[in-house]
Structures
1.
Amino acid sequence: MTINAGVGKTVQALQSPAVPVAEVLESPEFLPAAPGFYGWWSLREVLAAVPHTHHLINEDVSLLYVGISPVRETSRQTIRSRVVGNHLNGVGSSTFRFVLAALLLDALDLHPYLRRTKVALSADDNRRLSAWQREHLLLTSCARERPWEIETEVIAQLAPPLNSAGNAAHAFNPVVRAARAEFRRRARAASSPAATPRTI
């Protein structure tokens, strides 16, 4: 298969019917235990500030983010292990979850702090964010060997608003960068000596 054909097939597969996160957690086999791509979607206007990037089959579903697993040849990570193991847990190991937390910082009353050099959330904040994901988000996926070889082209075609890498030209990218910066700023402030100690 040529690279162009692989990109087209992947883009089409990522716009297959999206499965709610709650159903994926009940039946993880919805996600392949294989390398490839996954797409995070939400019902339209769940994140009102994020521009609508429509699903080909369902106009009420909006694309948020496209990811790959693994990101390099030496990793044994799969789509399933990446989504379930990282994107639905801490913010330190998931770019998507980090951005999502940054955008929902005030709406979910999240309080980031620094754990050594990484931004982290308390157990309660993480549970609240995960519950929000289960309630509002959906997933699609596409198995593909060596997904990093066509990642840039796939992102360029789908234009997911919450991706940063390979997506600098997107109109929403400045908002994503600003939200991430504010998330880090609050984490540093919470961890400074002048900050009021919190039990986490």
2.
Amino acid sequence: MKKSSIRLLDDLWVRTRDEALSSSDESVAFLTAKCFESSDKIVFIAEDLVPAKEKDYLYRSGVHLEISPLYTSRVLNIAENKQSTVIMVHSHPFEKGVPQYSPSDNHGEALTSETISNNLAGNPPVGSLLIGQAKINARTWIGSTKKRFSSSATILNGNKYWSSHAASKNSVNNILIDRQVRAFGSGMQDAIESLDIGIVGLGGTGSIIAEQLARMGVKHLTIVDHDKFEPSNWSRLYGSTMADTKSIKSKVSLLSSYLGKISPELKITTIKASVMTNSVLKSLAACDIIFSCLDRHAPRAVLNELSYQCFIPVIDVGVGLNKNDNGILGGSIRATIIGPGLPCLFCQEIIRSEMITSELLAPQEYEMRRAEGYASNTQDRAPSVITYTSLAGSFGMMFFLDLVAGKNFGKYSTLLYDLTTKESLRLRTSIKDECVCKKRLGQGLSMPFSVAD
């Protein structure tokens, strides 16, 4: 069955919730939204609220409402001008638990969603949010077919991440994760199992993150890497064996096979391609959270854009080692979380435009410009040690667990460990004016990515 995700920034969610619960009677509102589809998921990126006025209600009580066709028409005009679709919103103001759609809701939304889809270009899907006093429910209507299925709803900004994912129907055997559930609780375990997670880059950091996620009970991973396994990867790539050094395998196939033995119920989507292609980015846009485990600036930059355009938290991890002929002198281990409301990788100068330029040069031109001093050293074979890549991956997993737990990120967005001083630091910079993260916010897939094919 196809899945669906409705994503809202926190300030829009607060306005929507306040509007929906402004009366003891049921209330209605509409959201305009960008919408796109992957192979198995429909994603809504909420844009703006179109509240109902008192005159827009034909009938209203604590258990039922009817709205004027003129209100629907007004919403359609706004959505059409934006080239967007619509998310229907209404409340069950007396519901303290998870609100449930009534037969009356089913009938009314079937008609309204059909009207909306038939009057917008391409007959787009239509979303729905049902708001109670403390919890919400969500679903999606498919075009003009009157078919519907449940959806997750995610509210996020720089200080928190909250999702209404339903509990997994095929939970991990409780005996296997008993100690974890004792630590996190069953609610957080349900959330972990329901998330779609993407990992880009399957080296020392990406492979340990993948293994940790598999052992924690994640049910769906999308793993991306265009490289083949090389003998030098053996020293830090989890899941590889000495036998793999004598065969030619892609990293995605090697890791997929290994993870399948750890967790046979894990659904793994493997993509042996560069992340700097539109088809790969479209697949990743359906993920709830993405790990960026890359050692180059250009692919990090495109994931940076994806994060803000499609409202996806991205956890970027990295290791930088300093050395001379006598060995390692120092360096740092880092994990950084980015997304709406947080400074992006450009704001923090973790990625730089001159490095992207150097990486994208043809080999001959790169060598010429580097000799002239115009191109930066991209360090094709930078030093790497499994101890440090493992720690970087675990730093990233700390951010992941905080995200799922709904922890506040108001004071920091980077965890940094200095290998020289052995100090751990929590850092956060300001969001820069006119930065890419502001210009691309909420644009979905309608805005082209700057360095993709």
3.
Amino acid sequence: MEPEQARIDREKFLRPVWLERIRLKIARNKALELVYRLVVLAIGLVILLAGVAMLVFPGPGWAAIVLGLLILATEFHWAEILLEPLQRLISKLASRAKDPQARAENIVFVLVAVVVVALAVWWYLARYGVTLEPLPFIN
């Protein structure tokens, strides 16, 4: 059985069980714990800042930001607080995906969107045939 404090820490921070075991071993040595926290901080911040840079430059910016925050949340409560809105959104979307009425609404929406796109393609092909000439950027 796991000690009560370990369970509370694992729930407080986003740590899987295997990481919590390693973390408890590291916590016995204060110097090693400080080094571990600094390494987690450095890795998390590098990935987070790379994500912020990828918002401007090509790359999966938001995914990197979330990954950086997830890494930081394994050790720092402030990072977990920053992730709470995302966790609430994911929970809301998951419950909506399980709701039969919402699922039916989503299916109807997708079907209407497919019909609209099919009609637009049919209209374009009926009017212009298979050509790209009427597009303004084609000379």
